[in-house]
């Protein structure tokens, strides 16, 4: 084998010349502590009222319909004044959703869509510091179910719209039948990835991830059925034992890494200029150090999920009585599918891992990974989002492409625009992620203010036709 010698000049050139921090296109709006839109007492009361509605949704047939209707009525009443503007219309979609349309002065141009939801997952008082629907202000935090997912976005978009102008599947069906502009959207922005303060080693600045796609979602039921009997004469293994062994295999054998087959490569290279040496050298030269980075990402679940499809055994049951051998046992496994995989490849791989014909599978739910939306400095909608983030958040910000690991309503909008992005304008730490759908969900007051200001500037910036250096800022 002939050794290949790579001059150090090549590595250093890529490290310090090819991958360098970007310059801002929009002038910073304000410091992080002095935003134009403040969470005044009046706005805080509105936000707290929104949070207090117990708009719980478990599935499409199990929701707190009355609370959802009341919440929708409150939103329409709170923002009824914007309907005095002749360019704005409100549409009731089915019984529980709202669509506001703002007509522009040039109807031939494509519109854009900002999406958010006000239904929430269940919450029990349990170990919460404050009652989950109490919307209690405790120091710099507001505690309530929905603060992170996703009532803050609902509130921020509507407050921003009010200043600027002085239900997912149902919405998607409606938009598919009604022509807006030329019948297509320039871009769609939904909830999704956030601004991470401590997500990447040696990165000296916050990292904002614009999700250009989302993982697929696959739920599979596994079942074992064998002869039962009396517990005094047990046969081994039982249905529970067989199924448990299968679940252990699934947890122990990860699905193959798809490193380089999704946006994770561009994510890491975009972060490179904001890291310290030698990490910067590695990230700028993944064509050499890709296998090393693949191993590094696999060391933590949060980073490993960026490069592979994940497996989680979420439910298991079996048996009918303490002295009866279980005739059957069943479990539920949830997969989040990397863009390099499909539902079918995951099912085939699972069957190979389990390698036991007594274990039968049944697909309960499957959504394939979303298409990857166009991104880069030549894509106008992506650049508008990217530089609005940099404009709104104080200091140096690394804005990078990536995948959102959870599911969003945007999966219903893939036929409406090829520019479909997911971003929630909030600062979070890795330790905050357990609060999504967990106990003590909360948000800082400063994050609520950031969200309002982000959406205000996004609305203003989306009217910019051509992006040039130092576009004037838009203060209130």
Detailed description of the structure:
There is one protein chain. The protein is of the alpha+beta class and 476 residues long. It folds into 2 domains: 41-195 and 371-461, Aminopeptidase, CATH 3.40.630; 213-367, Alpha-Beta Plaits (2-Layer Sandwich), CATH 3.30.70.360. Helix content is 31%, strand content 22%. It is globular. The termini are far apart.
Question: What are its keywords?
Answer:
476 residues; alpha+beta; Aminopeptidase; Alpha-Beta Plaits; 2 domains; 5-stranded mixed β-sheet; 4-stranded antiparallel β-sheet; 13 helices; 18 strands; 31% helix; globular; disordered C terminus
Kindly summarize this structure in a few lines.
The protein is α+β, with helices and mostly antiparallel strands and 476 residues long. It has helices at 8-18, 41-52, 65-78, 151-165, 168-177, 239-252, 264-271, 279-283, 286-297, 301-304, 343-354, 380-392, 445-461, and strands at residues 57-59, 62-63, 88-93, 97-102, 112-114, 136-138, 141-143, 187-196, 207-214, 216-225, 229-230, 310-318, 324-325, 328-337, 360-367, 398-404, 420-428, 442-444.
């Amino acid at each position: 084998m002939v050794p290949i010698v790579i001059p150090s000049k090549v590595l250093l050139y890529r490290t310090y010349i090819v991958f360098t921090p970007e310059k801002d296109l929009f002038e910073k709006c304000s410091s992080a502590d002095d935003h134009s839109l403040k969470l005044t007492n009046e706005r805080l009361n509105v936000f707290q009222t929104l949070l207090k509605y117990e708009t719980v949704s478990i599935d499409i047939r199990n929701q707190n319909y009355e609370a959802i209707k009341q919440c929708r009525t409150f939103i329409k009443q709170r923002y009824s004044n914007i309907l005095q503007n002749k360019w704005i219309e409100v549409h009731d979609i089915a019984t529980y959703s709202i669509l506001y349309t703002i007509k522009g002065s040039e109807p031939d141009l494509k519109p854009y869509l900002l999406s958010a939801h006000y239904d929430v997952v269940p919450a029990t008082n349990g170990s919460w510091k404050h009652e989950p629907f109490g919307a209690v202000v405790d120091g710099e935090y507001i505690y309530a179910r929905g603060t992170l997912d996703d009532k803050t976005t609902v509130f921020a978009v509507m407050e921003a719209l009010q200043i600027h102008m002085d239900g997912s599947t149902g919405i998607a069906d409606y938009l598919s039948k009604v022509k807006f502009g030329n019948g297509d959207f320039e871009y769609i922005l939904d909830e999704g990835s956030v601004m991470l303060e401590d997500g990447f080693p040696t990165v000296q600045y916050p990292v904002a991830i614009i999700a250009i796609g989302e993982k697929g979602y696959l739920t599979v039921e596994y079942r074992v059925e064998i002869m039962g009997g009396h517990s005094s004469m047990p046969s081994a293994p039982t249905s529970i034992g067989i199924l448990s062994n299968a679940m252990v295999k699934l947890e122990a054998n990860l699905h193959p890494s798809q490193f380089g087959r999704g946006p994770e490569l561009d994510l890491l290279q975009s972060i490179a200029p904001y890291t310290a040496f030698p990490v910067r050298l590695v990230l700028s030269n993944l064509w050499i150090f890709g296998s090393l980075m693949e191993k590094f990402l696999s060391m933590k679940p949060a980073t490993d999920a960026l490069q592979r499809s994940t497996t989680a055994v979420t439910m298991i049951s079996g048996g009918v009585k303490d002295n009866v051998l279980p005739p059957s046992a069943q479990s539920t496994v949830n997969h989040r599918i990397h863009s390099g995989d499909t539902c079918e490849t995951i099912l085939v791989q699972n069957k190979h891992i389990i390698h036991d014909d007594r274990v039968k599978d049944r697909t309960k739910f499957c959504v394939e990974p979303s298409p990857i939306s166009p991104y880069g400095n030549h894509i106008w909608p992506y650049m508008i989002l990217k530089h609005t983030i940099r404009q709104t958040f104080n200091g140096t910000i690394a804005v990078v492409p990536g995948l959102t690991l959870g599911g969003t309503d945007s999966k219903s909008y893939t036929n409406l625009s090829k520019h479909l992005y997911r971003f929630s304008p909030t600062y979070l730490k890795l330790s905050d992620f357990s609060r999504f759908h967990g106990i003590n969900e909360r948000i800082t007051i400063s994050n609520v203010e950031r969200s309002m200001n982000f959406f205000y500037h996004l609305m203003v910036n989306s009217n910019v036709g051509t992006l040039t250096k130092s576009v004037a800022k838009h203060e209130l």
